[in-house]
Amino acid sequence: MTRKLLPLLALLALASCTGQSKKDVELTTPSALQLEFMDNEIGAFFHFTTNTYTGAEHGDGSASVSVFNPTKIDLDQWMQTAKDMGAKYAILTARHEDGFCLWPTKTTDYNISNSPWKDGKGDLVKDFVEACRRHGLKPGLYFSPYFNAHAAFHPTDDKVTWGKKWDSLVRVRLQDSTFLREFCQLDMDQITELMTNYGPIYQVWMDHWSDNMNCDSVTAIIRKLQPECIMTGPDIRTPGNEKSTALYPSWNAVFTKDSTNSSRAVELVPATDGPNEYGLLETAKVSGHPYGKFWRNVETPTADIFNHGGWFWHGPQIPMSMEERIEAFYRSVGLGATILINLPPDQDGLIPAETVADAKAWGDTIRKMFYGPYIAETTETQQGNEVELSWETPCRIDHVMLMENLANGQKVAKYTLEAFVDGQWQPVTPANQFKYCPEGFNNNPGFETIGHKKIDRIVPVVTNRMRFRCTEAVAEPVEIAKFAVWNLGQDAPATTTEATAQAK
To answer: Can you give the residue ranges of every domain in the chain?
Structure first.
């Protein structure tokens, strides 16, 4: 008998916390690298190449190597800016889409050794990695296995327009088997150099990663040479935008291996490929699916917080309000993702002074708003469908944070928050509406998935007891790694109070 597919709500209802037991359901779980990565929450992205000097955003590989000459570069300034912002890791565009290499590669003349910087004796990748380690930041490198405009079109071709024309020309060129073999070998040789010559690399940010072309070959080299390196693509996905906004509700598990491609709005799920008796949807957004086969952390890259106008430096920044910058944190880390913030150096090789100041101001504000002290918090993982948090003196509460223990999978599909007021439990009302949310994304998230972290703004309530209740889950037991409450309104306390947590 053919099993009829169930709609999502019905699927989740079958796994309700209060219904049929789901203790035997096996969920996809993160690797140790993926689990650790989520705790970073904030990263810094440094876009720097010939584009910085030509004004291009997507270089076509025709820029002369002679334009690259950051005479005042200060890597310690970069790192201090990243740390002040709150970053735990940093990524450099070792080779962006133009194909210019920021290290003295033996594979192509289109590299830093042929630039005037340091009379051709410089190695920016080396300097960057060493600066990261001096400042306690985890070093990462950007490398796009598919896009290399210089290798594809120069020096024999005229300037190539970015976009559909460029992509179509690439696809035509790749039909030449000899060219394809050489094109792919260049990627593999270059990533071998990067993974061999600079010690441990924490992350490789592979733009346009997919399960075609040579991405799998590049991934295999990284896995072999740097087994402790996490990768955007096979380990991490973007949510389909570059506006610091996570999809919601969101599941880390996905069905399609190539779910990272930001142009993929929908991943098709074969109707016959169900992992269990609960059935599957025929389609699922890149927001994932509770029973997906591949775990992908979510990382939200953004060029806009401190540098409107693109990923590379294009002159003075366009001011953005602190309110908008703070909302970006709610829309990313507050929805279970990591936020990767661009800090592009200028033509001197320095982070502009206004960006330095803004990054520190934002970091100071984020730390004060979201990283404690809390009015009350749990100190260890709680198992159960209900978790109650209590403290001695009634206080005004306007923020709640929940975190799941994802080592055993993402389980919570819907939940409620309740406050004990006037001798009884009363539901609290979410106040999560965003003012600056990109079109097409949830601008008013409620109480659905949690994942790594969910930060809820709520209509303020005065209480000394709060309760989390899971109303729908995809597996059991529900495991809440952290439950915290605090007040950002009037009369916020200066210190954490003694709290008691109880799970049922």
So the answer is: 32-370, 372-503
